[in-house]
Amino acid sequence: MTPELSRQVGRVLGLASPPPTLDERLRIEEALAGVDTWDRMPDDILNLLKELKSGHGQRANRLSPVDARYNKAHDKLGKFAAGHGWTSAGSMDERVATTEAALYEEWRVKRSDLPESDVRGFIHRMAVSQEKTAAVVLRNGPHEIRIAAGTIENDPDMIGQVKKASDTLMSVAPVKRMSLRIDPPNSMGGDLGQAGVGVAVIDGRRLAPYWRDKVSHDPTSMPMAGSVIGWKYTLAHEWGHVTAFEANDSAQLNSLFETNKHFLSHYGKKNRDEAVAEAFAEYHLSLGKTKNKAALAYAQALGWSVANYAK
Ligand SMILES: [Zn+2]
After folding, report:
1. 239 Cα to the center of ligand 1, angstroms
2. Could you report the per-residue pLDDT of 225-283, keeping only the tens digit for each?
3. Separation of first and last alpha carbons in the chain
């Protein structure tokens, strides 16, 4: 498969609403192994990709009523079902399947040395172990917030604040697919800001009682980090990763990074992915009022706007 074809298929999968199921992903992956142009794509896979792209037809009928209602509102308004859209997620089995789908793409590439069955077995075990520790899983259409045991699961007020902050970001920067994972301090090695395929991870320490109201003053971050509560900065940064992932335009991100890296935070200088996440956090948390040249350049190039920012 050529990089161009891979990019195009990745874009279809990334924007599909509802997101492709694990089964759909596996069918596409298997077919693509023997194909190098669209002309040689098997008909059934071509049709599946068309369905994923349009988001209509038979796939739409398979949606649960709640998802269908959500997606209709999303398509019509171009924004999130804010305020009332969050519900508790379904059964353990259902959540495991969703998590497997989210992990598959990344791990198929990371472990291309292993046979298909081993990779599937591996991500299945990983998904089961993640779900076991997920004390709270909230869904809003294709969006998800999972909060791991040991952090804030017994704190409705804090959960409410996270939902509200997510609603606000969704109203200005809608993403199609997002799994926000809030982990206890030890499970991610204390690392902040890891992003994968539409997944954002927040270290649970940012939401722990002794930290949750603190301004971060993180010297490696952008100027706004000195004015906002730490976990809100992290949330905005992770959101930036997911919007960039969905836009999937590496050439543009490379060029923005090269032109603007001198004006970015220490962390933003690391690579083009951290750069866009840092610029996003700075721009949105300042409600577009930042003077930072990099944040303003990214906002203009990528069409960011704070016009609809929820009050
Ligand atoms: Zn990051």
Report:
1. 9
2. 888 888 888 888 888 887 887 777 889 999 999 999 999 999 899 999 899 999 999 99
3. 47
- 75-90 pLDDT tens trace: 333 334 445 566 666 6
| One domain for residues 2 and 102 | no
Q: Which of 24, 46, 62 is the last residue of a domain?
A: 62
| Ligand 1 centre distance from Cα of residue 304 (Å) | 18
CA of 311 to the centre of ligand 1 (A): 26
181 and 267 in a single domain? The answer is yes
User: Which residues does residue 144 pair with via DSSP β-bridges, in sequence order?
Assistant: 139, 179
Q: How many domains does the chain have?
A: 2
* CB distance 66 to 138 below 8 Å: no
Q: Map residue 268 onto helix, strand or coil.
A: coil
Domain of residue 228: give its range.
Answer: 63-302
Q: Which of 101-105, 135-139, 152-156, 232-236 has the highest mean pLDDT?
A: 232-236
